[in-house]
Structure formats: C-alpha cells, structure tokens
Amino acid sequence: AFKLQKNKSIYLFTPKRSLMKHNINHILNKKVMDRYMRLPFPCNKVLATYIWIDGSGINMRCKDRILTCVPYAPDAAPTWAFDGSSTGQATTDNSDTKLQPAAIYRDPFRTEPHVLVLCDVYIGDGGQPASTNHRKYCNDLCEFHKEQEPWFGLEQEYTMLDVDGWGLGWPKGGGFPAVKYQYSYCGVGAKYIAGRDVSESHARACLYAGLDFEGTNAEVMYGCWEWQIGTSVGIKAPDDLWMSRYIMSRVGEDYGVDITYHPKPFGTLHPGVGMHHNFSTKRMRSDGGYKFIEECIKKLEKNHMKHMKVYGNDEATNRMRLSGKFETAPFEKFSWGIANRKASIRLPRNIKEKGKGFIEDRRPGGDCDPYLVCGLIMETCLGGPGT
Ligand code: ADP
Ligand code: MN
Ligand code: MN
Ligand code: MN
Ligand code: MN
C-alpha cells in the first residue's frame, strides 16, 4: 500500500529530469496491430472498459472485461472489484475495492458495440465511498434539487506536454516559447498554437462516446487548450467531464502527448489552467431570477474559503494560480462582477437587462474534481439534504 502524491507541478522539471525519451505507445507499429483488429469478432461478446478515479483524486485507472451483452444502462453492467492497494485506495491486507458502474458510454476507440463504463469506488464490498469518490455526494445533491433542474457548463483547460515533460512545441533545453501570449488564445498559425490534432481527435471521440461535448479553443499559453462540457442537467456534467478526461488520456497515448491539468504548470510567470464552472437553476433562468442570483452570490461569498479548500487537487497550487494576474482574482478574496474576468464570480454581460441567467465560478483549478465543485455550489446556493 502507498499514498499517491498530489498533482505535481512540472515547471520544476527540466528536460534533464525527463520522464522518458520516447513514448513507446505511438511508435508501436499500427499496421501489425491491424492484423489482429481485422479478426472477426465473436458476435456474442462485448468489450467493456471499467474506468475510475484513483487515490490521487486526479489520475484515472481502467481495466477491461468481456461481457456477453451490451449494458445500455449502468445497472445492467455487473459490479466489479480491483486491488485498491495498487491505486492508493486501500491497504494491502484489505485490498479488494468495489467498482460500481455509474454511467455507460460508447467506446470511441473500439467503436460499437463496445462500451466505456464510468464507475465510482466503494471501500471493501460496498457501503462507504472511497476517499476520492465524491460522485455520491454530488449525485445526492442533484437528486435532492431535481425540481430546480441544476444546469452546469464546465470549461476544462489543460496543457499538452511532450513525453520529456516539457511543454508541447516548447524549445528543448528548458527554454520558453519566443512568442508572447497575446496571440495564442483562440489562436491560429503554427507559431501561436501547438497540438490542434490532439484537440480535434479528442472532440470527435467525445462526441462519438455520447458526451455533452460543447466546444474547444486554444488557450493563452502555447500548448494549452480548453474544451467545454455542457450545458448539462445535473450529474451528467461532472460524469461527462471525467469521461472526457479519460478519453483525452487515451488520445494522448496515441499521439505520445502527456496531458496535465496542473493549475500553474510553468510557474508564476506563465498563465494558469482552470476549470470555470457555469451554473444555473430553473429559478435563476426564470423572470426575476437575477434577485435570486444575488442571494446566491452572498452565500458563495460567505463560504469562500470553504470552497477554496477543495477547488483544486491541492490547495497550494490553485493558490499559485489565483494570483490576481492572468485574468484571476486573488485566492483569499471573494469578488464578483458583470463581464469581469478578474472576479471570482462573473455574470454574463446581459444579465441585468434580461433579469435572469447563470453564474460563472472562475475559482476552480484545472485539476479540481467537478463532483466536489458542482456539489458544493449546489449545497451553498440551494442547501442540502442535511440543512
Ligand atoms: P467563456 O470562455 O467566455 O467563459 P465558454 O463558451 O467557454 O465561455 O463557456 C461558457 C459556458 O457556459 C458553457 O460551458 C455553457 O454550457 C455554460 N452555460 C451557458 N448558459 C448556461 C446556463 N444557463 N446555465 C449553466 N451554464 C450555462
Ligand atoms: Mn492480478
Ligand atoms: Mn471558456
Ligand atoms: Mn479558458
Ligand atoms: Mn469561462
């Protein structure tokens, strides 16, 4: 048994302390693999990849099993177990850990009828959720507030790294891109962006899988991108976000590109990486909703530090990101504003005229757990089963 490290900044890495020289996955001969892929597949078998969040709270794990029919809903997929002592989720002497299927997706890597099975993790043979399983917390709140129809839109920013651990397309030897960051946000041109193929492949795969995949854009930092999930009802938003992270890791294997969600991967002089959470309820979206939105903002202000504690995989690194620079608000200080990208909470420009709308919580770091963030936003704004 071991404890997993928190999501680590790679800005301390230099290519000398590189992870590896080559990524083997994307140079294995795909033509050879094709011979096996062309073998007729038994019509009574389905490949299912069971996927879960490990003890780090940011990395994911998967393992495959063969089923005899397609599970179209999570309850149709059998529960399963794994060795939690190898994933930072259990001790060796009590290692069997339960996988509870939570959502089913089409497998974009093998295509139909094969499936991806998103699971949440329970200690032992059930009962208690594992320490990094926040899905239950979030889902209970979604169920509790069903009538309010909570909607979420999640903007996942991320950084592409070469397998040596340095930024994709960044100069080798520890150098930084020559071009400053004025041109890279929604940028076009080889000088300004790197890795569009990865973003494009990921988008196609996510759409095939059946995610509420909304869009993509290049971000301020070279090699940094964003995708959006939404606008989704309740638990589907964080479910799809986690599945889109899994799919991104798999696409990255194919290209030999490593993906990091670290909030400040290259240190204080370079832009940060976040995951804005956009949120609304039926009441916020109805006439007069603006007044309710103001009430919610007051509650969010009161609970600011409670949110900040869990708005990243590691509080310290999100603190680094929320410096007051690069379109962020300072970590310690809550603020809000209309069309203000230096505020903790931004409201869309037209919200006052319309008298209704949604809020954007700009505080979560790129490596946050959207189950925790969505859950906490609901709990703070709407109350919970316990209050
Ligand atoms: P920006 O980068 O300017 O913040 P994006 O287009 O990246 O804008 O993200 C806007 C997000 O807002 C989308 O994820 C979208 O789903 C979400 N959104 C739009 N309307 C609502 C709403 N009524 N409730 C919740 N989220 C919403
Ligand atoms: Mn084994
Ligand atoms: Mn965005
Ligand atoms: Mn962005
Ligand atoms: Mn945003």
UniProtKB/TrEMBL annotation:
Domain GS catalytic residues, every copy: 134-387
Keyword set, alphabetical order: ATP-binding, Ligase, Nucleotide-binding
Gene Ontology BP terms: glutamine biosynthetic process
Enzyme class: ligase
Annotated Gene Ontology cellular component terms: cytoplasm
EC numbers for this chain: 6.3.1.2
Molecular functions per Gene Ontology: ATP binding; glutamine synthetase activity
Residues annotated as domain GS beta-grasp: 44-126
Similarity comment: Belongs to the glutamine synthetase family.
Protein name as catalogued: glutamine synthetase
